[in-house]
User: Fold this.
Amino acid sequence: MKNKSYFEKGEANAWFQRNKQALEQNASDAPTTLLIEWLQPFMRDIDTALEIGCGTGHRVHQIAQGLGAKASGVEPSKEAVTYISETFPEIIAKVGFGDDIPFSGAFDLVHLGFFLYLVDRKDYLRCVSEADRLLRPGGFLSIVDFDTPKPYSNPYAHQDGLYSHKHDNAAVFVASGLYTVINKYQFSHSAFHFDKDINERVSLTLLYKETEIFGG
Ligand SMILES: C[S@@+](CC[C@H](N)C(=O)[O-])C[C@H]1O[C@@H](n2cnc3c(N)ncnc32)[C@H](O)[C@@H]1O
Assistant:
């Protein structure tokens, strides 16, 4: 089975149920706080923020509060989307996957919220394309995810036959020539500092979607 159909058939709701309480107790997390700090000089340019893979909505809620922006989110778990509409009624949340996002328009900030490692490799470039479609030129793209010096995959902890895919995701956007890395902080899945263990490595990367160099 592929990751997407497993998430469609129940793992997205199971993830929500497993993590809801922890997220409620950690409503303000360190990487999101750092992202908001990096974006402070551009607050006036950021009116709309979309998180892809938004889970319980706590991260995009924190981002929106920190930047004074209107929040939207997309997430495969129907239970999570119902929870978001009850808990954060100001967030526009929709059920969907990163490779086919049920939003149109151009956001000022698109946040890829720790879901790319779950994307089947055959859908990966569609997710990149969807993120790009939804971000306006002159906008900001943030990515929090596993980040390794070379791409590789591990068995997914909750189901045999599925994989977590680890990769330098920002490099794919930069290779297009359309994005510039503004800031990057490399930390660990278990602590907020660099980890020598490649398997634990996570990063928060902030990118700018160029305009002027293309005359656009
Ligand atoms: C590790 S959680 C992160 C949730 C949230 N962004 C956070 O940081 O708390 C990954 C989330 O991505 C969702 N997800 C899984 N596959 C996805 C896909 N292909 N596209 C979008 N989201 C996906 C899961 O249902 C889950 O809510």
